[in-house]
Amino acid sequence: MSNKRSHSFHIIDPSPWPILVSITLFNLLMGFILWVNKYVIASDIIVSSLILLIIVVTCWFEDIVSEATYEGKHSEPVQQGLKLGMILFIVSEIMFFFGFFWAYFHFALSPSIEIGCFWPPFGIQVFNCLHVPLYNTFVLLLSGVSVTWCHHNIVSNKSDLDVNWEGLIWTIVLAIHFTYYQVVEYTEAGFNISDSVYGSIFFMATGFHGFHVILGTCFCLVCFFRLREGYFGIRHHLGLEFAIWYWHFVDVVWLFLYVCVYWWTSTSVAIK
């Protein structure tokens, strides 16, 4: 029997990385639960799980890069399947944030008697939408422009690597800048996650968005190193394209968060 492949699809070899990522993520979640309940061992579990997660994900990424770049297993049908998978992943993320917006407007449009029939509840000092939130909005929008600039340079077949790098470098710098000021905003907040349903929704929605910004920053950082090594070209830059899709998704989610959670709430308080 011939071992010659009679199709253009990639049959993935057995890999230990998916199950190892699942185990480390489970340990990370358990560490977080223990930390919430103030167990001393929680910090050790969280740190060790994060270190293992970084190592495992790095090894997994190396295998994927090897399959795509050196082994040539990402044929055109495989790339189309990967694009469809990324689209479905982003759609699932949209549904994830849709749940937060649903909860927010459920209480905002018809405040219940438990919160005094008032939104935001009494005692909640909301953020001024024209201060740090507006600044962070401009920062994220600029990062979207810079990452699109990088993609334009690649598809235009520009051979100057310094020009191609600049877009990704600016995106990473702006993303770190955004994350820093988001942390500053949290430290200066006049309420916390346990201060009524508003505090819970605010910190869950913006916190998960911040987590996605950190993930997107990691994706862009990986793409930067791959771009520096010459892995991307005019016809083969799928990893960078996925990172750009993800980053634009993060931008759009923040725009909705700014308009709904910051601007609309801030103007409602000013009117009342």
Percent of sequence in beta strands: under 5%
Number of β-strand runs: 0
Low-pLDDT residue intervals, each spanning 5 or more residues:
none
User: Could you describe the largest sheet, including whether it forms a barrel?
Assistant: none
The helix content is over 70%
Given the C-alpha coordinates, what overall shape results? globular
Estimate nothing, just give the exact number of structural domains. 2
CATH class of the largest domain: Mainly Alpha
Distance N terminus to C terminus? 79 Å
What does this 3D model show about the protein?
This protein has 272 residues and is mainly α. It has 2 domains: 12-73, Helix Hairpins; 75-271, Up-down Bundle (Four Helix Bundle (Hemerythrin (Met), subunit A)). Helix content is 74%, strand content 0%. The chain is built from 7 helices and no strands. Helix 1 runs antiparallel to helix 2. It starts with 16 loop residues before the first helix and ends with a helix.
Short description:
By secondary structure, the chain is mainly α.
Task: From the structure above, extract its key features.
Helix Hairpins, mainly alpha, Four Helix Bundle (Hemerythrin (Met), subunit A), 2 domains, about 270 residues
In terms of topology, how is this protein built?
Layout: H1 17-36, H2 42-70, H3 76-109, H4 132-155, H5 161-187, H6 196-228, H7 238-271
Helix pairs in contact: 1-2, 3-6, 3-7, 4-5, 4-7, 5-6, 6-7
